[in-house]
Amino acid sequence: MMKPLGDRVIIRVLEKEEKTKSGIFLPDTAKEKPSEGEVVAVGAGKVYDNGQRVAPEVAVGDKVMFSKYAGTEVKIDGVDHLVISERDILAIL
Amino acid sequence: MMKPLGDRVIIRVLEKEEKTKSGIFLPDTAKEKPSEGEVVAVGAGKVYDNGQRVAPEVAVGDKVMFSKYAGTEVKIDGVDHLVISERDILAIL
Amino acid sequence: MMKPLGDRVIIRVLEKEEKTKSGIFLPDTAKEKPSEGEVVAVGAGKVYDNGQRVAPEVAVGDKVMFSKYAGTEVKIDGVDHLVISERDILAIL
Amino acid sequence: MMKPLGDRVIIRVLEKEEKTKSGIFLPDTAKEKPSEGEVVAVGAGKVYDNGQRVAPEVAVGDKVMFSKYAGTEVKIDGVDHLVISERDILAIL
Amino acid sequence: MMKPLGDRVIIRVLEKEEKTKSGIFLPDTAKEKPSEGEVVAVGAGKVYDNGQRVAPEVAVGDKVMFSKYAGTEVKIDGVDHLVISERDILAIL
Amino acid sequence: MMKPLGDRVIIRVLEKEEKTKSGIFLPDTAKEKPSEGEVVAVGAGKVYDNGQRVAPEVAVGDKVMFSKYAGTEVKIDGVDHLVISERDILAIL
Amino acid sequence: MMKPLGDRVIIRVLEKEEKTKSGIFLPDTAKEKPSEGEVVAVGAGKVYDNGQRVAPEVAVGDKVMFSKYAGTEVKIDGVDHLVISERDILAIL
Question: According to its UniProt record, which protein family does this protein belong to (chains A, B, C, D, E, F, G) (predicted)?
Answer without folding.
Answer: Belongs to the GroES chaperonin family.
